[in-house]
Give the backbone structure.
Amino acid sequence: TMTIVKQKSSNSKKSSSRRSDKSKAPRSKKMTSRAANLGRVAPPEDTNKVSVDKGPGSAIYCRSSQKSKPFGQRDLVVNDGIAPPQRILFPPEKICMDWQQTQSVGVGLHNLGNTCFLNSTLQCLTYTPPLANYMLSLEHTQSCHEEGFCMMCTMETHINQVLCSSNSAIKPTSVINGLKRIGKHFHFGSQEDAHEFLCFTVDALQKACLNGSTK
């Protein structure tokens, strides 16, 4: 057998080396700039606006100086011509997207046997500032007249326990006791899906807010 070896000309070698030199120069520059950026911490937006708890452990940052912009009736009219609602359940100007006060990081949640789906969902909701702000104000329980199960009251109790307790961890018994009321197919001790539980929990919160309203 005969093998044919194709040799490159010297001109092609020179041109290829030139191309490689050209491509290498900016590449090394980019790499050095990227390497220089590694380990850098982005500065806060404004040190005057950001406050932090100086106590032990971590803390939740809040921008207490930011004020929510008031909404007018005209802001509620959508471009497609939908008229504003006849009744507003919660005024938009009261919704605060940032923490209204500096909070220390709350307590942990005990796993009571395959309750990790429930714990992770509750922790996500607890650290959602607009929801937590409302629950910490205790506004719902002051006006709630529901004698039976109320998901809003249950969540308000839980969030206040997590963020205001001095313990290291608590048992989410208030939510577990109402597990069947959140979803009939949920069983204590069974492995469940966290996203599914979140959907049913938010739905139960909405039903509690709409309690007494017509369809």
Remarks:
- Strands lie at 59-60, 103-104, 108-109, 169-170.
- The mean pLDDT is 74.
- The two ends are 87 Å apart (CA to CA).
